[in-house]
């Protein structure tokens, strides 16, 4: 991956087009989460902590996107872990605190292992600047990958996500999807694809791990009835696609992975907000117990149709182009990877069709509260942005390719 036109701005930050692209995504998702929070977070107490943690999640994501110093990236990494821990336990119920504890322990332990790998790199290279690292070894790679897999919920280090999603406020859940869970794959992109450190076997192994995670996550989502569990397994599946793109590399793989971060952040955060609206309106969170929401709120139904369509990869949503580019990149690497990616895409189609049909069709529920207009507006904005970016997909692609160093 070549990076041109970066501007050093001190404090071990730098501006390149990838970093700016990611920062805009994270800032926008943070803004949407803030607006959604103002409409939906009604509980008294802990509000200052809530908004501070929201700010830390977004800020740490931007910090990782703009950092080239691995030690500084690790600091932002741990700030993100701390903020996720506090927000997962926001409601202070016993099950929420247990989920927060699991989330913190797994992410902290994986980050500690990753730190050992970063120290090994420093001892061999005398620098934390990933542009200047020349010597890499398998031990450092394995240790760092453990941290990456845990943060970006790649199987088998994904088990913290389901309890976290069940406990976290809806607005923060959208921020986890759109910002925090991308930190790991961003580090993989920056560190492992910047130089020629490893044989192709390393990247092929990571690519197959990404496909396996995507397939297993999609299969679990297809079988899930709890709304938040379904979102969690869907996230595991879709982030697998992002890691696949970065692992196969090349223009299609890397740009496809970047576009996938954009598409998934917009669509999945919107779906998380939509599930939050449904939970608030119906008091239920089981897919089999919720139906007829299209009659109750056509705006929500249409918006979530666009968002789910982007996750599936329907034309002309931005998700279509991101998935297409990743699959092309996988096929360029080897036909087997391409077939694996297409099978994972079929699982994505199946569970999203089931998810949408169960939610919005069938008998109308007897007691449904009117959804918040502000919350509906946020979901609609995310759906429209996903559509417009798909219609004008040339602009983000051109930004990342012609002017981005490829």
> Spans with pLDDT under 50 lasting ≥5 residues?
1-5
How many individual helices?
17
Mean pLDDT: 89
Over the alpha carbons, how many angstroms does the gyration radius reach?
20 Å
Category by helix and strand content: mainly alpha
Helix content: over 70%
- Order of SSEs, N→C? EEHHHHHHHHHHHHHHHHH
The end-to-end distance, rounded to whole angstroms, is 7 Å
Question: In what order do the strands lie side by side in the largest sheet?
Answer: 1-2
> What's the story with the biggest beta sheet?
2 strands, antiparallel
Tell me the count of domains. 2
Principal-axes shape call: globular
Number of DSSP E strands:
2
**What share of the residues does DSSP label as strand, in percent?**
under 5%
Can you offer a commentary on this structure?
There is one protein chain. This protein has 406 residues and is mostly helical. It has 2 domains: 12-193, no CATH class; 199-406, no CATH class. It is 74% helix and 1% strand. It has a two-stranded antiparallel sheet. β1 and β2 form a beta hairpin. Residues 1-5 have low confidence and may be disordered.
Task: Provide a quick synopsis of the model.
The chain has 406 residues and is mostly helical. It has helices at 17-40, 47-65, 70-88, 94-125, 138-151, 161-167, 170-178, 183-192, 200-223, 227-248, 250-282, 293-296, 298-312, 318-333, 335-360, 373-391, 394-400, and strands at 7-8, 14-15.
């Amino acid at each position: 991956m070549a990076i041109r036109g970066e501007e050093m701005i001190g404090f071990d930050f730098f501006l390149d087009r990838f970093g700016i692209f990611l920062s805009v995504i994270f800032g926008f998702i943070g803004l949407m989460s803030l607006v959604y929070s103002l409409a939906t977070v009604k509980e008294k107490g802990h509000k200052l902590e809530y908004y501070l943690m929201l700010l830390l999640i977004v800020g740490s994501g931007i910090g990782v996107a703009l950092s080239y110093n691995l030690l500084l990236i690790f600091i932002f990494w741990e700030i993100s872990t701390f903020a996720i821990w506090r927000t997962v336990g926001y409601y202070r119920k016993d099950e929420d605190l247990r989920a927060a504890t699991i989330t913190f322990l797994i992410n902290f332990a994986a980050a500690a292992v990753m730190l050992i790998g970063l120290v090994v790199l420093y001892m061999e290279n005398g620098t934390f600047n990933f542009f200047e690292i020349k010597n890499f070894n398998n031990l450092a790679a394995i240790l760092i990958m453990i941290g990456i897999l845990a943060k970006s919920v790649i199987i088998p280090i994904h088990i913290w996500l389901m309890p976290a999603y069940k406990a976290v406020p809806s607005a923060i859940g959208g921020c986890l999807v759109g910002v925090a869970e991308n930190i790991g794959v961003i580090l993989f992109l920056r560190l492992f694809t910047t130089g020629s450190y490893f044989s192709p076997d390393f990247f092929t192994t990571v690519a197959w791990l990404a496909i396996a995670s995507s397939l297993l996550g999609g299969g679990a989502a297809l079988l899930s009835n709890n709304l938040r569990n379904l979102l969690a397994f869907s996230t595991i599946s879709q982030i697998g696609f992002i890691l696949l793109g970065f692992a196969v590399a090349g223009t299609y793989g890397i740009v496809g992975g970047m576009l996938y971060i954009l598409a998934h952040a917009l669509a999945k955060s919107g779906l998380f907000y939509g599930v939050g609206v449904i939970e608030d309106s119906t008091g239920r969170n089981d897919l089999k117990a919720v139906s007829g929401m299209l009659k109750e709120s056509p705006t929500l139904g249409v918006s979530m149709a666009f968002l789910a369509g982007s996750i599936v990869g329907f034309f002309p949503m931005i998700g279509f182009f991101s998935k297409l580019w990743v699959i092309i990149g996988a096929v360029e690497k080897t036909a087997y990877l391409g077939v694996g990616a297409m099978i994972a895409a079929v699982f994505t189609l199946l569970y999203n069709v089931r998810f949408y049909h169960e939610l919005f069709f069938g008998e109308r529920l007897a007691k449904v509260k009117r959804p918040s207009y502000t919350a509906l507006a946020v979901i609609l904005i995310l759906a429209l942005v996903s559509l417009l970016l798909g219609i004008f997909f040339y602009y983000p692609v051109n930004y990342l390719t012609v002017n981005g160093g490829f």
